[in-house]
Amino acid sequence: MPVLIKQVTSSRRVSVMAAKTSMPSTDFPATFHASFSDDTHLRIGRGQAKTIVLTYTVPSGLVLTVSSDGTIRQQYANSTTHAATPNEHEAYRVVLGKGTVVSTHKDGSQTIMYASGKAATRRCTSDRFVTVDEQGVVTGGGPSTVNNVRVHIDVDPETRAVMAHRDHDGVIVVTHPNGYVGRLHERWSLAYLTQHGDGTRMYGNATNTHVVVQKEGYAEVSVDVEVNLTAQRHALGIKVAVTKGGIRTRSVVRTDDGTVIEIDYDTRVIASVNGIIRLRKPDGTVIVASDNGVVEFRPQSLSLGDAPPTPRRENEEELDTSTGAYYFNCATGSLHMNDPEHNAYHVVVGDGTVEPVVEVALAGVVTTQDCAKYDVPPLPVQAVVNNPLEPFLLLLHGDGTATEVLRPSDVADYFRQVQRNTHVQRVPTVPPTGTHIYLHHLDRFEHNERWFADHHERRQLFDQVTIPARASPTILKRLHNTAPLQVPIVHIVRHIKEVTPFTPAQFASMLHALEAWHDWCAKREIAQDQYAVLDPRDSETMVATMAVQKKIQAAYKAARAKKKAERQKSKERDKHDADGDTNMSTLQEVENEEDEDDDEDEVYHALDDSDNDSRDELEFNVDDDYELTLNAFGQADTENTGRLNAVQTRRALVHALGTGVTQAEVNAAIPVFTECEDHRVTFEAFSRMLHAFREDQDMATLGDLPTPRGALLPWKMKSPRSKMPSPRLKFGGGHLAAP
């Protein structure tokens, strides 16, 4: 049987730290490097003034250098000839904290582009900048400065947008005044669009708190000006307001391949680091770099999917994101990680002058250091391995290349990714060989915007700023690129080769070891569940049984209380009517009462097969309809979302009614009592539905009723808790409905 191998350069993900032999005194002894399956590369190292610098390279040749001080540098490793993005003249560009772009050309000239429309240029580094402001006033440059330039002002009669155009440098500023009425929003605030001569676009709001910088071929940069100013003041030692403190996002960088880079700053007094850079890949991989040189690598297995983070409830445990993550410390040249089995691994490489140290602490094993620390004899404890991993083999050739021997799980995972991704195609080989070729076309990927702090302002700017349809042809020609906006076409070719690296004897030995490993796994599965007790009943039957048992216990409790009250009344009558020694009579009655209670305890104990009689400590009051409904709804809502699907709704109805309900009846009732498009049942809808089932309404007839707002809704059951009157009462029916 052949074994699948693959070159490291095309592996799923490889993360290493390269030690340096010579370095400045302010630099880290190690640098973090990571390569990804989409042929992107990441490097993290020390920057200037104790900052952290992240360098991200994409297959199109774009190189992003992001610093934790808020500066973002973009440049191409090679030149492109796309008609819409000619960058032969531009060497690199830097985006600063207020959205200002400093463009350096290959001939040595520089251009500073501001979001307000002001621009400054100079021919070489020895010259002074010549600045043209929004009104066309030219300043700087010495006595040979040109005269002021003319600014053309146009007003769009439909949108009332003000368009300012300068022929001198091609700058166009489109400003939408306050009060513009659009089709999607009733009232929009002031927003503007500035486009400079090289095609750089800047979107901003009225207060200039948020600026979005775009240019085709380069990454989009969204800047929070207020947070940047606060971070700069804090970095200089100036006090900042407590209300503006905490971990806040300064800038967000979005690339065409779907990668998002966030630059955060922490102004808290208890913060161990201030500058933080987060990189999020489309597959869910997250890399967090801090100013102190610690890099956290969270693989795809720890990803939460596309769902945005939700606030954690008080009774919920904090999500564990450290187990399974890799922690690289570039300052000490070390690696630390805890696997899902809580086995700890620690590798110290150092600065390359000492021999590396590898430490492994298996879960459940008492080390000699722990025995010496607590003065106990060594304990023969075996390591805990519940989910054993298949071995991973990487062959280093010594010339800088390596070969990875893929595990069957790796191959199966890659094939599943190929089936899910429509942009990956297999290229057939003629004649058929052991080499499999896959062609991957990179397409734009967008994350769920609710993950990021700037999603609201960014979306609002794009919705508010529009290009007037009645603008002059000259302005429209400049605002619309000569070539359509498109992502550079990049194809990645992957070769997976099948070879036979072993002799027959070696291959048989490997199969024997693999078979022994499978046998050990099977024995482990049997051993870890040998004392497990399984209930053959399904979950719905168990819930219904528990509900009936609680109702029976509550009924016995009510009967017992009623009987006790009758005895008390009888005792009081006898006390007033009887003559003689009342004390003896009372004592005799108490003794009889205890005897009767003991007899009833035996009856009740026979109904409960638990160790402790819990009839006096019920979780809820069955006589209270609201508590019964709330308990049934809460037990069915296993996901704690506040909404039930059809199966969970039926389970809750069975719990509350104590009788069986078919799924067809529940499916017919859900569209009648719910108002959501996804037909998820809220607690309020569940209360009305439970009331309808108790009144024995025909579910087949309810399916023909009109929409929920037009239908007569049953009166909601009264809750013992104080609530504000619901606006749905005006649609309700019955004798308590609003007139």
Automatic annotation (TrEMBL):
Q: Which InterPro entries match?
A: EF-hand-dom_pair, SPAG17
Where along the chain is composition biased (Basic and acidic residues)? 567-579, 603-617
**In what ranges is there compositional bias, type Acidic residues?**
590-602
Annotated spans, Disordered: 300-319, 559-617, 714-739
> A Gene Ontology biological process annotation?
axonemal central apparatus assembly
Please provide one cellular component term from the Gene Ontology annotations of this protein: axonemal central apparatus
Superkingdom, natural source: Eukaryota
Protein name, per record: EF-hand domain-containing protein
